[in-house]
Structure formats: C-alpha cells, structure tokens
Write a structure and sequence with these properties.
Layout (H helix, E strand, L loop, with lengths): L2 E5 L6 E5 L4 E2 L6 H18 L16 H13 L1
Antiparallel strand pairs: 1-2, 2-3
Length: about 80
C-alpha cells in the first residue's frame, strides 16, 4: 500500500494518507505520537508477514506438557 505522510499546515499535526483507498488511514496526531503510530504499523506489518501465523499450532513432539512439568518439578527440588 502506498502511504503518504501529510502535515496539516494549521495544526502542524500529521496523518497518514493511503494512495490505494484515497483516504486517511489515521487520525491527525502530534508528531511524536504519529511517529510512534508509524512504528506500530511497521511492527504489525512485519508480524502479519511471518509465515507461521498462517498455520495451526501443533504440539511439540520433542517436549510434552508432562515433560515440561516434570522438568519444572525437578528444578524446584534442587
């Protein structure tokens, strides 16, 4: 998606414009909050692109729940 950073000349606040939908995809924000919002968008986009998020989670064949509980119990004894 093409995103453009637009500053309101009167309030000096920032908003994000989408060239795909031809509309703002954020509210108007002060610069520091807008930068934080952009960082969150980058993280969200990165997470959405991770392949494992497209598949079901399968239980480990290497360590079962029972194995994990046994290991933790043994640690408590030490």
């Amino acid at each position: 998606m093409g995103r453009c950073h637009i500053q309101n000349p009167e309030t000096k606040e920032w908003a994000c414009w989408s060239t795909v939908s031809d509309e703002f995809i954020s509210d108007w924000m002060p610069e520091d909050i807008y930068k934080f919002w952009l960082e969150l968008q980058i993280v969200r986009d990165a997470i959405d692109s991770i392949p494992y998020r497209r598949f079901d989670i399968k239980e480990s064949k290497w360590v079962t729940y029972e194995d994990a509980m046994k290991i933790l119990a043994e640690k408590e004894i030490e």
